[in-house]
Amino acid sequence: MKQVLAKIISPSRGISKGELILAQAPFALLLLQVLLLFSERRLLWGVDNVFYRFGHADDFLSNAILRLYYAPELSGWILIVHILCCVLALLSVPLAVLPRIGAWLTALMLYAAAPTAYCGYMPLLLAMSFASIGLCLHTPFFERIHVRYWLHILMRAQSVLFACAFACFAWGTEQWLQGQTFYYAIHQDEMIRPWVLQQQEILGSMSAGFTYTLMVFATLFPLLMMIRSMRIKGIYIGVVIVIAHALLFNHVMNSLTLALLLLPWGIDLPRSKQQVSKEL
Amino acid sequence: MFETNLSRFKKKSVVALLSGNEMNSRLIRILTILIPVLLTAHLLMLGCAAFQEYLGPRVSELTLAYTTPLFPVSRSTPGKAVATSDCNLEFRSFKTARWSEWQDASSGFGYTPQSTTEQIEQSLCEEFRWEVLHNLYAAGGKQQFDHIIQGSTYSKALYFIVRLERLSEQSSSDSIQLRLNYRFTPPPDQAYTFQRSFLEFPAFDLP
């Protein structure tokens, strides 16, 4: 019994530091997000919340599953469980997979109850945290089916999908094609940092440069990341864009979630399938 | 004979599944077919949603049914056009037989522009933009608000103000009136002057 317990609690061996960061980062962001919203919890999830009492869309994701099971009077408990699970999910033990599942499910419930309170890229954060649930599984059975390898690939695929979707929408929108999106974005006073308010006109004149850079980067993102020799340069450009986003716009969670897209590419995949098969 | 073979096959499959070897090769085969198909379908749907104005109503209906649940929040989708005006929700309340001054919905209660409350206000403004575009009409030379007032956005906004009033422990109002404060951003090639426009909803008597 002691041996079994020691095996469960002992840190996951054979997992690199990079992989550990990749497994923990999405849950650290979920924790940060819920802590940022904590002060306004009564407005968001309580019995008298602003969002819950009115009609909702009848589409599958926003109604069928989550709202039927979610009861506002339980919101306090769900919030506590979510915070606890997020903290436990940061542990580097194989058993952390359980709090990670809990953190992901409760995050989904809290998000579905008050989607507008969350950052715009929350669906992306949820998708990335789902993929990182099993990244700490390093037991022989999971190694045989290469769970970590496939989950890492899934995280990379999600980042490419996001970039492709972004590029698709941008190329189909006149405002983006005319290079005016950045100009209009920095004139939304609630979206930007206070220092930008003083520089709106100057920054606005550089709108085409910012807009086209972002458009081209999103379009080339799959190529930049998949061609190994270009990856590091692509990551550097991505980091510069994320820093610029964080400096210009208010919502820090959006910037951090964008940074999360680069993380799976900055960290090597777990050993190749052939290597693992040989070892086993 | 057949049953024995079947049970042997089942047993073999279970052992192979648990050992992981056969499952892996099957999994790879399934995934190599499934993932490109799913990716192509997903990208095709997003592509159609992006270019829906050039496609027929049937195609856009189908793509919207797919993309709306993926992006459930009414705020703009990454990669789509940004609003060309800055919008704020404002209110005034009727207390002790007089109307108060117009106040911003979040900063009127002491919340900063970086707060979650401001974010909620902005999401309500986003919903109002849609409502104004689709449900505001004129009849007899006057703006008609009945369709907007019947919608959930208006009731949500009213309830938002009432909740903030309660949370800030102010005495409750007899009536509340909402208005949208638009500040239009001039196009980049025109004079850098901003126009304001207000859209006042009828006063609402609180029970």
Structural overview:
The complex is a heterodimer of chains A (280) and B (207). Chain A has 280 residues and is mostly helical. Chain A is 70% helix and 0% strand. Chain A folds into two domains: 15-138, no CATH class; 160-280, no CATH class. Chain A has 18 helices and no strands. The model of chain A has no long low-confidence stretch (mean pLDDT 82). With 207 residues, chain B is α+β, with helices and mostly antiparallel strands. Chain B has two domains: 2-70, no CATH class; 85-205, no CATH class. Chain B has helices at 2-19, 21-50, 57-70, 116-135, 146-150, 152-167, and strands spanning 85-95, 98-99, 103-104, 137-139, 142-144, 175-184, 195-200, 204-205. In chain B, the strands form two sheets. In chain B, strands 1, 2, 3, 6, 7 and 8 form a six-stranded antiparallel sheet that branches. In chain B, helix 4 packs antiparallel against helix 6. The mean pLDDT of chain B is 79. The chains are: A mainly alpha (280), B alpha+beta (207). At the A-B interface, helix 3, helix 4, helix 10, helix 11 and helix 12 of A face helix 2, helix 3, helix 4 and helix 6 of B.
Secondary structure: elements and pairs:
The complex is a heterodimer of chains A (280) and B (207).
Chain A: H1 2-9, H2 17-37, H3 41-44, H4 60-64, H5 66-69, H6 75-88, H7 97-113, H8 122-131, H9 140-144, H10 147-171, H11 174-177, H12 181-185, H13 194-198, H14 200-205, H15 207-226, H16 228-248, H17 252-266, H18 273-279
Chain B: H1 2-19, H2 21-50, H3 57-70, E1 85-95, E2 98-99, E3 103-104, H4 116-135, E4 137-139, E5 142-144, H5 146-150, H6 152-167, E6 175-184, E7 195-200, E8 204-205
Antiparallel strand pairs in B: 1-2, 1-3, 1-6, 4-5, 6-7, 6-8
Helix pairs in contact in B: 2-3, 4-6
